Amino acid sequence: MALNRARPGWALCLGWLTFVVYGSLLPFDYHPLPIDAALARWQALPFLHLGVESRADWVANGVLYVPVGLLLAQCLRAAWGDRVLARGLAALSALALGCGLAVAVEFSQLFFPSRTVSQNDVMAECLGTLVGVLVAPRVGRWADALRLAWTQDGQRLLPRLLEGYAAAYLLLSLFPYDLLLSAAEWQDKLASDNCGWWLAPASRQRGWLLGVLLGAEVALSVPVGLWLAWRRALRHPAPSRHPLQPLRPAPPRLAGALLAGAGLGLLIEGGQLAIASGISQGFSVLTRAVGVAIGAQLGSVLLAHLSGQRSARHWVHTWRRVAPGLALPYLGLLAGVNGWGSQTWGGPDTWQTQWAELHLMPFWYHYFTTEAEAVFSLGSVALMYLPVAALLGTLRVRVAGVVLAA
Length: 406
Description:
With 406 residues, the protein is an all-alpha fold. It has helices at 2-25, 35-43, 52-80, 84-108, 119-151, 157-173, 183-190, 201-204, 209-235, 254-273, 283-306, 312-322, 327-337, 348-357, 364-367, 371-392, 399-405, and strands spanning 195-196, 237-238, 248-249, 280-281. Strands 1-4 form a two-stranded parallel ribbon.
């Protein structure tokens, strides 16, 4: 039974391990090397003194291995049981396997000259694995609670999802964690185009796309407001007028929600100011305050419905009634964001030229840009097409059909 429960986790774990190996060997510029020469290079592996421009890459290597330690620890724990000895053995085994993978990948990179191999990378990846192993118990408890809410307690399904979203939102907002470590680095950051009291010069250069990005900041903050409303409902429930009706959540105050959103904005923008690749601006504090306030007000309505017993099937059925009406506005917004109304259409010669220059290898372009830009690109594209899955879910389309449609 334990192996059966662990199978979905192993599939996710193997998928992530494949992604780690694939991304670590891009762009696959393989050069044969005698094993003796490779071992000699490995023994002379340098320890680099990294500047601020290389810090993001070093941190990204560690972040890449956090899910390695987390998923391995969770899968081994599910397979070996929940006893104290089994948990400890699973954690140590996950750490050993993750560090072994790091060493194997870095050694393989010796055969790919376009990749930089150093002691720094091995250290970052082992540290990332250790962090993943350490946070695995907390994440595992949240995942178990989410699974229970999905199967038995639909009333708490949305709050659990919002809880995970709020944590992921805060962590991704500060990626790639390339902290400024000297006074000279702070001076360079304050004099750059990446910070401004109202709008950073780097943001103003985006033109009309700036409005879309600021609107996205508002939208991405709304679920955080929903989560805060849920937290307030648990702590300060308002009694129902009728004794037989369930308790209704106390509606959040607008001023309090705005202050909470502004606090979140100050936290994120302050963090962005303290990292080399971050863009910090005062206007983003306002957008997050507005988003959290909107979410908190919506939360008072949603949580009133959640106060009665609702199953996950009930919410799926409700979404199926609402989603079709959102399809056309979504497609229009998707076309606009991708430049259909602002770019000039070319003829067959233009299409052929661009197609000939296109690299179809997955994540090929992400290798040649910064970690922050790569994550922004992946995240924005994922958010663009995530509604496809939600919309097609109303038609009970299978996963393969959803992927093809996206």
